[in-house]
Write a structure and sequence with these properties.
This protein is an alpha+beta fold. The chain folds into two domains: 3-129, no CATH class; 143-304, Phosphorylase Kinase, domain 1 (2-Layer Sandwich). The chain contains eight helices and 14 strands. The strands form three sheets. The protein has a seven-stranded antiparallel sheet with strand order 8-9-10-11-12-14-13. α1 crosses α2 (65-79). The longest helix has 20 residues, at 285-304. The relative contact order is 0.12. InterPro entries: Pkinase_fungal. Residues 66-262 form the Fungal-type protein kinase domain. This is Fungal-type protein kinase domain-containing protein.
């Protein structure tokens, strides 16, 4: 099937007839207001999640089908840190579209009329029937441990148990972007190598960084060098215990589909393990003010040294 990549999304009108040509014609109709609509809806749902308001939306309120499927994708992304991409179907009358979601954006294939073009639709169903969890977007690196309700990783001799269901997990609700997740993590290897740090606990930061930007580990390497010379920075730098860059790039599918500028905005998954810190909100009065001031002075010193992060 032919495909297009939308900055936010695109939709093929269901009322357009399927051409008689062997390859369906591609209709590209941009929904200018869709971005605002999705953002507003996601913001509303996100607020309900944060405030604990589980009130269901008014069933009478009709959402655009592209917004509905976007919400489904956002929920699936938020529910499982091990999901790399998602595949959904949008069905309107006798037309069906395949939508692919990842952290770079959305890809929509041209519509199929499953009545007039039944053979092509059957081929699509046969393909889906043979999908494994990997094809549906599940990462093979994160092994789910049902007994402990966690995910386990073993990379280059480093063992990690990611407590992705922990109450302190900070998750992300949305479709595009870094999608940062932070959660407690344990590791026999890292604990052995860093006993003094590991006793305070460790956390993992998982996020989709833009491939073409300077990586966070490289930025921290520069910061560590500055800390050797700047008293305002020394002692204020997070302890990066271990990091890994995964190989999967969101641009790969765009290259395979022949989408223009596939690498523009391409993202790659990182995992960083840090020493666990206490929130500054636990401090009170003068102690809070002094700590906050130190944060400001540290940031200012780094900015002067050329680290704009």
């Amino acid at each position: 099937m032919s495909a297009i990549a939308a900055a936010d999304s695109a939709q093929t009108p269901a009322t357009l007839p399927v051409p008689d040509a062997e390859r369906p014609q591609l209709y590209d109709v941009r929904l200018v207001l869709l971005k605002r609509k999705v953002a507003k809806t996601l913001e509303s749902v996100s607020k309900r999640v944060k405030t604990g308001d589980n009130t269901e939306p008014d069933p009478e309120s009709k959402l655009d089908v592209t917004v509905q499927t976007g919400l489904y994708a956002a929920k699936m992304f938020a529910a499982n840190v091990a999901v790399k991409h998602l595949v959904n179907l949008v069905v309107v009358d006798e037309m069906v579209w395949v939508w692919h979601y990842d952290r770079q954006g959305t890809i929509q294939c041209s519509g199929i009329n499953f009545i007039q073009d039944l053979p092509r639709f059957m081929v699509l169903l046969y393909v889906f029937q043979r999908f494994s969890l990997v094809h549906w977007g599940r990462s093979t690196d994160f092994k789910y441990d049902e007994k402990n309700d966690s995910h386990k990783l073993m990379i280059d001799g480093v063992d990690l148990e990611c407590h992705t269901s922990h109450k302190d997990r900070v998750a992300h609700y949305g479709l595009k972007g870094r999608a940062t997740n932070v959660f407690p993590v344990t590791s026999a290897k890292l604990s052995k190598d860093n006993p003094e740090i590991a006793k305070d606990g460790m956390v993992a930061k998982v996020f989709w960084a833009e491939e073409q930007r300077t990586s966070e580990p490289d930025i921290l390497k520069k910061v560590y060098e500055i800390a050797e010379e700047q008293d305002a920075v020394k002692g204020h730098i997070p302890h990066l215990l271990w990091h890994h860059k995964f190989k999967d790039l969101t641009s790969k599918i765009r290259e395979a589909l022949g989408i223009s500028e596939p690498a523009k905005g391409s993202r790659v998954l990182y995992i960083l393990v840090f020493r666990k810190l206490k929130p500054i909100t636990e401090l009170k009065g003068t102690e809070f003010f002094d700590t906050w001031r130190q944060c400001i002075m540290c940031h200012y010193a780094l900015w002067q040294a050329g680290v704009y992060h």
